[in-house]
Specification:
By secondary structure, the protein is of the alpha/beta class. It folds into two domains: about 5-145 and about 205-244, Vaccinia Virus protein VP39 (Rossmann fold), CATH 3.40.50; about 145-200, S-adenosyl-L-methionine-dependent methyltransferases (N-terminal domain of TfIIb). It is about 30% helix and about 35% strand. The chain contains seven helices and eleven strands. The protein has helices at about 10, 20-30, 50-55, 70-80, 115-130, 145-150, 205-215; strands spanning about 40-45, 60-65, 85-90, 100-105, 130-140, 155-160, 165-170, 175-185, 190-200, 220-225, 235-244.
């Protein structure tokens, strides 16, 4: 996953308001007692589109992802913007840090890509171990309403002069599969075909809360999509924070 796709990922995600997301995450960190200057690890950081603005806000960021191609793109972006961030290849289920950190983030559906309860529990346990006492785990998930009711069995297309993108979603029980066909134009006028298959799981709030408690977390708070209001079943995204 995310090998050839890393080449076009940022272009396909260019309409995502990452600056707004970063400000919101900074607010969640603040409410959790994690202020600029704190050491923060972002899991599933992708190409660093949230890691970099959070670093600019003063957090001592480390980016973690399983894809070396995404990490290479993240490092190049950070270097181009004059931001120094270590990017490390790790599986978020086995997150390990040299010394305890103030916060662990898992952004942009990272937890949805953990498609079994055991995988989510492994991540939460690893995040708990990585945190200082009083540290915060903050993450988001696409909701069951979004994955199964809104995106399930949907087809989206994008056609531009040098890029054609076909996105097909398919819901099956609690699992949501995505197939992408991308044709990207090369410098010589030829096209490269990139095929990407992904799976996500629609976790419920009850499940996430139970797993956090089992991992040892306290003061668990669930918010709606980029709001400080309580999470609701019709939200497209939930943001969740918990303290060690």
């Amino acid at each position: 996953m995310y090998t050839d796709f890393a080449q076009v990922y940022d272009r396909l995600m260019r309409d995502v308001p990452y600056a707004e997301w970063a400000r919101y995450y900074a607010g969640l960190l603040d409410v959790s007692g994690v202020l600029p200057g704190a050491a923060v690890v972002e899991c599933a950081c992708g190409t660093g589109s949230l890691t970099i603005p959070l670093a600019r806000m003063g957090y001592r960021m480390t980016g973690v992802d399983l894809s070396p191609d995404m990490l290479n793109a993240a490092q190049a972006k950070a270097r181009a913007q004059g931001v120094r961030i270590p990017f490390v290849r790790q599986n978020m289920q086995a997150l390990a840090v040299q010394r305890p950190v103030d916060a662990v983030l898992a952004t942009c559906d990272g937890v949805n890509y953990l498609t079994t309860p055991r995988q989510v529990q492994a991540f939460m346990t690893a995040a708990y171990a990585a945190l200082k006492s009083g540290g915060a785990l903050v993450f988001d998930v696409s909701t069951p309403h979004k994955l199964l009711d809104t995106l399930g069995d949907r087809l989206f297309t994008l056609s531009e002069e040098d890029l054609v993108y076909v996105w097909q979603g398919d819901g099956d029980g609690r699992l949501f599969s995505i197939h992408m066909d991308i044709f990207a134009q090369n410098a010589d006028g030829t096209y490269t075909r990139i095929q990407e298959d992904q799976r996500q799981r629609a976790h419920t709030l009850d499940e996430l809360t139970d797993w956090l408690q089992q991992a040892g977390f306290r003061d668990i708070r669930c918010y709606g999509d980029r709001t400080m209001e309580p999470a609701g079943i019709n939200d497209l995204r939930w943001h969740i924070s918990a303290l060690k």
